[in-house]
Write a structure and sequence with these properties.
single chain; about 300 residues; alpha/beta; FAD/NAD(P)-binding domain; 2 domains; five-stranded parallel sheet; four-stranded parallel sheet; 8 helices; about 25% helix; about 25% strand
Length: about 300
Amino acid sequence: MKNRLVVIGNGMAGARTVEEILGRGGADLFDITMFGDEPCGSYNRTRLGRVLSGADSEDDIFLNSLHWYRENDIALHAGVRVERVDKFSRHVFASDGRVIQYDHLIIATGSHSYLPAMDGLYTPSGTLRQGVFTFRTLDDVRRMMQFSQQKRHHRAAVIGGGSFGPDAAHGLRAHGLHVEVLSGSRAIAILGDHHITGVSVRNQPDIDCHMVVVSAGSRPNVDLAVVSGLAVERGIVVDDHLKVMDEDDVYGVGECAQHRGEVYGMVAPLWEQAAVLADHITGSDRSSMYLGTRTAS
């Protein structure tokens, strides 16, 4: 009888880990169930800027289509969030009321955009105001493109740098917008009452704009782990085998994981972690260890 493997997260880390597991004969070992927040297969987030600019289509950046999951007998619940894990009874509880038992659990919940403290980001109800965007998902790109194509929107501000900030600026310029890029530490407030009119900047004149993209880094998604009583510091604490501290058969991988005090936000560590985790969970190489990635930060 196969063991039940549940993977929470269908981003680059979760999907790559499952690919590595299948490559080690995992289809004969596990019945695999995956949950993903987004209603689609997995895609390469590092190429979102190319979709925004029009250099790539959405189809160009997909790593695994929905057909791939069916073809590999993976039960993918796309667009369904897991809200809690009961590590004692070994069940996951999903937002659609689904309850799934597991023998092995992989948490690959990734990260979310960091929003620096500044006035004017939110509506009174606590949602991002119209014209303010993060830049992490295909849905973010679709909404940015739709907003930028409206006739009265000619100027944009990108707050934050990193790898995604320049991509967002380049993509918006491809749609004919004038774009200003500034660091998160310089931006004080987003201006305008009903519509965005600009950004207030420390020690310099206000910047006129009609939309704002916040690309000021990311933070690990650990809410699920905290609610479920797992070891969390900055990220979910894992050992050199990617096993969650003090847990049996629970693993963490990717941007949500903290290994030897480090949380990684680049692709190379995700791939290396996925290979080590697959070695262990399939039993193909119990001596395999992840010792950190020097090239990442």
